[in-house]
Write a structure and sequence with these properties.
The chain is mainly β and about 130 residues long. Helix content is about 5%, strand content about 45%.
Length: about 130
């Protein structure tokens, strides 16, 4: 059974940094893609970033390019999202998701939430101005 557990969410001031973690179990980590998504109140869930463990390729939403960095530690089966220069618009519940690269990578972008099959419970990030 695929299990994903997010942690690291907190309340920070604008301009600050946070590192989110997604601890995984129950699947062949090296064969999967892991993505980060977020959902703000009243808005649809949107893709933030993802990493294909198969070839180490990474993808970012335009809104976070240059500020967020995704990485993985295969030994710990954990994917991180380093978030710098946080803005109030980054406030959301952040979720990690997992699926096969060939499933999520068929469209122009792999950051389409509906293509991802397994999800964590989310962690709250609040950025105050």
């Amino acid at each position: 059974e695929v299990q994903l557990v997010e942690s690291g969410g907190a309340q920070v001031q604008a301009g600050g940094s946070l590192r989110l973690s997604c601890a995984t179990s129950g699947f062949a980590f090296a064969d999967y893609a892991i993505g980060w998504f977020r959902q703000a109140p009243g808005k649809e869930r949107e893709g933030v970033s993802c990493l294909f463990n198969t070839d180490r390729s990474t993808y970012y939403a335009d809104s976070v390019k240059g500020r967020f960095t995704i990485s993985s530690d295969r030994a710990k089966r954990t994917v991180y999202l380093q978030m710098n220069s946080l803005e109030p618009d980054d406030t959301a519940v952040y979720y990690c998701a997992a699926d096969f690269p060939w499933v999520v990578g068929v469209a122009d972008t792999p950051l389409l939430p509906f293509r991802w099959g397994s999800w964590g419970q989310g962690t709250q990030v609040t950025v105050s101005s």
